[in-house]
Amino acid sequence: MAAAWRGRRVYGADLDDPGPVPGHSYVKLVGGPLDGRLLDVTGWSSLELADGALLLSELGAFGPGGRCAYEPADADGVYPTWFGWRGDVP
């Protein structure tokens, strides 16, 4: 996975989270510590979508400061609807 950490918005991470914003684009995170949450991919290029995402998460195997790797899992469409978990990295 070539994606580097950039500011990413994951919905469903906090109990007081306002939720998805109308007019934005999201992919569902499937598997791993962020399972079921939505990642805001509004404005991402097709190359960025193909790279997937490294997302900071205190819930992963490496605790605070660790990252969870997610990659597009449904490559049959032009625009992925979900990213599958590929593992945790320090």
Automatic annotation (TrEMBL):
Task: Spell out the protein name for this chain.
Answer: Uncharacterized protein
The highest taxon in the source lineage is Bacteria
In which organism is this protein found?
Streptomyces katrae
